[in-house]
Amino acid sequence: MSYIDDICKAIDYIETNFDCDIFLDDIASSVNLSKFHFLRIFSMLTGNTPTEYIRRRKLTMAASNLINTRDPIISIALSSGYMSQESFSRAFKNMYGLTPNTYRRNKVHFANLDAIRFTKDILDIKVTPKETKPIVIKKDGFSLLGIQYHVKNKDREIPKLWNRLALRIGEIENIASNNYYGLQIYSGKLKKTEEITYIASVEVKSAGTIPPGMVSIEIPPSKYAVYTIPSIIDDIPSVMKKIYTVWLPETGLTPTSNYDFELFTESFIPNNPNSEYHFYIPVTGECKHDQSNSC
Questions:
Q1: Spatial contact of 50 and 39, defined as CB atoms under 8 Å apart
Q2: What's this model's pTM, rounded to 2 decimal places?
Q3: What's the rounded Cα separation, in Å, for the pair 23 and 145?
Q4: Within the chain, how many helices (H) and strands (E) appear?
Q5: Does the keyword DNA-binding belong to this entry (predicted)?
Q6: Where does residue 221 rank: exposed (0-12), middle (13-18), buried (19+ CB within 10 A)?
């Protein structure tokens, strides 16, 4: 049995015992591993400690209960393992960007911030990401409008930015399609501060009236290497790093600009292993393995 099978069994144990106190010794025993060895393997495969996984999974269920039930917030707090509504509210706002009261009032579930239940399919993707070869296309210029933020994304600021846009999407005029664009602009600060400019946006036919706190930007015509990537939100930074440091250099193509962007179609489902998004990099050169515009 592989370690992935062991971790799947451990997750089954955790998920079926959320109503009880869950101890690391008991989880490790359920898969016949020492506590130290289990902790190391779990963290290596999932990117989370068991304690962090449990905490975030309980907050995910709390988010669902806030929208789908009328349970008092204090009851949801206690069932999530918090001794007071205040401590629960702090933890919830840190994860979802809103207080439990506001989250319930908005009635919009922020699935992109959920802690997903790890399955074998998801762990397989995380442990051995499948190398993806880009297609190379030419794309006309287009206009974007959205919310801009300077981020390091250390505390999931980018998913939270998308949720801010979702709550204000009705303010944008002249939307051209149901697609969403995550535009990333890199500056000389990147190496020193790890900050990028990120714009959560939609394509518009024309900028029209720009709502307060939003920006518009024109993307020029370009040749792009386009990668198709599984929709596991927490894995996006590591996959992009793999593209830029390994997969793209192998093609013979060279990035030409200080930006790239993610394209999310209306079929995109966050954290669904069967869902995908597209990552566009402006490039120059000829692909070493170009066959029918696919590297």
A1: yes
A2: 0.82
A3: 48
A4: 12, 9
A5: yes
A6: exposed
Question: Which residue segment(s) compose the domain that 177 sits in?
Answer: 135-284
- Pairing mode, strands 135-139 and 222-230: antiparallel
Co-location of 270 and 143 in the same domain: yes
Structure tokens at 63: 């988010």
- CA-to-CA dists, residue 274 to 73, 78, 159, angstroms: 34, 34, 20
pLDDT in tens, 49-66: 999 999 999 999 999 999
Task: Evaluate whether residue 172 is within a structural domain.
Answer: yes
> Which amino acid would we find at residue 83?
M
220 and 101 together in one domain: no
Is the four-CA dihedral 160, 161, 166, 168 of positive or negative sign?
Answer: positive
DSSP-derived secondary structure letter, 22? -
Element (H, E) at 62: helix 50-68
**Cα 37 from Cα 236, distance rounded (Å):** 27
Q: Is residue 45 part of a domain?
A: yes
End-to-end CA distance of the chain: 36
**Does residue 198 contact residue 160 with C-beta atoms inside 8 Å?**
no
Note the pLDDT tens digit of each residue in 1-58: 478 999 999 999 999 998 888 999 999 999 999 999 999 999 999 988 999 999 999 9
Report the C-alpha gap between 7 and 231 in whole angstroms. Answer: 21
What lies within 8 Å, CB to CB, of 238 at 6+ separation is 129
Give the CATH number for residue 17: 1.10.10.60
**Rounded Cα gap, residues 206 and 8, in angstroms:** 49
Q: Which residue has the tokens 């959560």?
A: 200
- Between CA 215 and CA 144 the distance in angstroms is 8
